[in-house]
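Before the break, one more example. Copy the sequence into your notebook; we will annotate it together after we see the structure.
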Amino acid sequence: MIMRQLTQFWRLTLAGAVTAAACGRQTPPAHVVAVQPTAPRISESEVRDLDIAFYAERVERDPTGATDLVRLGVLYLARSRETGDPRDAILAEAVARRSMRNRARHNEAAAQVLASSLLAQHRFNEALHLATTARDAEPENSALQAAVGEIQMELGQYDSARVAFSKVHAPLGELALSPRLARWAEIQGNTEGARRLLHAALATARRQSDMPRAQLAWYWMRVGDVELRAGNMSAADSAYRSGLAVNPDDYRLLSAMSRSMAGQKRWRSAIAFGERAIGVSLDPATLGTLSDAYAALGDSAKSVEYARVLDVVVGKQPGAYHRAWSLWMLDHDRNIPHVARKIREEMRTRQDVYAYDLLAWSLHRQGRDLEADNAMKIALRLGTRDALLEQHSAAIRSALGTQVSDAGGAR
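Here is what the structure looks like once it is written out:
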């Protein structure tokens, strides 16, 4: 029973939609048993925190066990996604490794939690090794094939990802696989296919009465993200608002709404959503949006304040640097040589579409538009439809056209 539940956990975790329920429990925590029908209702996040405390105590009482460590790792990962706190992903890694030390063999569940925690920290190569090992043990398992393909896609290993995804077979609307297949379709420029897959998954999620609110809101967010990247602002806003109706304090949806409002130059709305979002998580992209929104309204003091907070937050984040910070720095002509070095450092291991877009944009901001154009062509080689990529490409082509025109006039 528990291995079946853990397999389901593996399917959901790498797609970002895992919840504590995916792993299940054989022994209910004491607080669940004690709650009476007349007791005050507590939120899902409060239940999760109580579960974390429960399993942490069990782990301390039995330091040689393995299964409870896995369950604790699942809960840490769920909290990390809900709050954006990278420290929980690090805690999940620690308990997964501890479980694997306690049970070196037949402990695939801990390996799955470990891979997910590494992926959350953007340690893609390590996660890929673990995911590939799990896939090779069950080559007919579509969920494991998709997990490998997803990480390969993040690394920019698109030929390998294509092979992995070609072996994925799932009914339309399958909750764990549809979001991964949708992202693969989107990267290849098939926005309509991605939209169809995500709406089918969302419909499935909405039919499940026991679907946690945070997880259902995540599906709404994925629908909104596709629409936003395609430039469909109204459809994106509608999806984000639907997600917030389900889970009003979801910082990811609040951040998405803030960016969407800023894109429409609705600055006060961008600030309202953004400040609610950072009340939950100091997301760098949202801090940059708030800085821009206040600058647009003429409040330079607030704009500078948020820019400073952005620098501090990114500087304190463990692991890989934040791409949203790099983009914001490039857009504002701040410390471009340093940002350009960070981009090239990441590209030693991660060469996906958005890495090349950042490289192209950094070259453009340095006035190296011929090189920027070459990098942008690589970024667009799969036909990815993304309003931001198209904006960058147009700016680079315009700069090249101006240079050619100037050269002609000089002759």
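The mean pLDDT is 88. The radius of gyration is 22 Å. Try to locate both features in your own notes.
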